[in-house]
């Protein structure tokens, strides 16, 4: 066996055989698969082997969504239906289209050939035969020297909208158990070795990394997901442990790489059951105000060279751009401005709503030349007016969630199909967060779009959302993408002709509050900024370590901020700024910080302390200017209650 050959080579080296006299053994692997084998072998596998001093030749016979039945049909007819993607010992991938299986099997003297079932059928044993038996006979006839291994696929993410997920009642663990039953049965019957990618993925999901390994709910993302699968393939096929392997993708932190290595290693040792690999979900945090460590905040009125900011002009012309650049480079990431291709399509003309209280308009904000990527803006404005100020905010579950208006258009399946995760919710399911009628009755317009329009809230290797349509030189994470979307919505409001776009308040709750703050800090066209319980990475001081910490946030949500921000994990004192300086970037415009006392995870004391520390910047505009910085703390948990909107609207009445 090849693994024995690798072992003997290592023994010869240890016995002192001259390196030049020993021919490096090259392992030749051919996958007959689909996009799941693409995820596993076309990236990272070569690099992992190279870092371990091994040479591989890797082939992947690729057809997206290809089942055993289709592979067998192609073999029988010798159909040139595949992309033959081959990675040589130099790491260069060459793709040959319209390739038949027979030609690929003859292309190299393969040591290993792998087979797999399409993911949606991988837990349904009745779909395997007679096709698997015929494929085994076909491979053994044409590559008799090769060992056949089984590639165990993985269960879909919780909430995935893949069309085959209902076969398993949309239950991840039910799908995982079905895949385990089928893969162990196949390996027992045919004597295959198993490549336990499915268990490796499930091992990782049991850690604090959670569901951050797919890019759409089923395909693996380009960072930890594909790396994890490649690690599993390498250890399973070579017998060489990946623990301590020095290679990792550049964008992946060492901690997450260590999790992936441990998950893969444990899967090879125990391929049909989840193993606790020791990176538990729980991250120790402090919830006791008395245990907050002493800290010193950076002074927002000191330039980088230590000199004092003495007036509003110095702040506006020098200190503000200086701070903005720090936040861009070290936290939120850089992002493009308004794209040249930006255009607007009104998909519902002005329609009476709320029994004549308001007018409803729905608009696509298209940001690509083909107009195939867009934000769907829902806009209500008071009937009989075209000069109302506007509250603009991101919603988290779809426009239909903000109120029970039956006229709100539902999610366009074509727009979200690439995400794999976008569950439909009941109309008005988040109505208490918005109180749209109250806003309208108080004389305000209301505009919103779903955050998923800009980018879904999971680590997807930047292949979904607006990031995928712009130059990779930009380093933005999801928070900056959502903020970018808010600015594009403001672009539309400036042209809408039915509201006063010079009086737009950008607002957000929880993680959407983080995005609202960055949008308001960066885009000075927003006339007012409202943060509602935005917590760490939002309004709360990072150094005031209560509840969610920078490390916890970057671990659970590695896609929110740029990679530079991760170097401050458990190292907050090294930050060249803190969130009071983010708040200060709003000055002299009105800013309101709403907190909830029982939402301790979101550090309400740290939010209000940040606002207090930022107040000195407003003072540059005179003694009355600090009145434009307001806030409150309710006695609520992490939810919006009527008191929140009452107090925010009272503040807006005076300042917007």
Structural commentary:
With 656 residues, this protein is α/β, with parallel strands linked by helices. It folds into two domains: 25-269, Rossmann fold, CATH 3.40.50.1110; 322-655, 3-Layer(aba) Sandwich (Rossmann fold). The chain is built from 21 helices and 16 strands. Helix 8 crosses helix 10 and helix 9 (224-238) runs parallel beside helix 10. The protein is globular.
Keywords:
single chain, 656 residues, Rossmann fold, nine-stranded mixed beta sheet, seven-stranded mixed beta sheet, 21 helices, 16 strands, disordered N terminus
Strand order in the largest sheet: 8-9-10-12-11-13-14-15-16
Annotated CATH architecture of the largest domain: 3-Layer(aba) Sandwich
Number of domains: 2
CATH domain class of the largest domain: Alpha Beta
Estimated share of beta-strand residues: 15-25%
User: Quaternary state, please?
Assistant: single chain
The CATH topology of the largest domain is given as Rossmann fold
Estimate percent helicity: 25-40%
Our Rg estimate from Cα atoms comes to 28 Å
Number of strands: 16
Number of helices: 21
Write the CATH homologous superfamily of the largest domain.
Alpha/Beta hydrolase fold, catalytic domain
Average pLDDT taken over every residue: 92
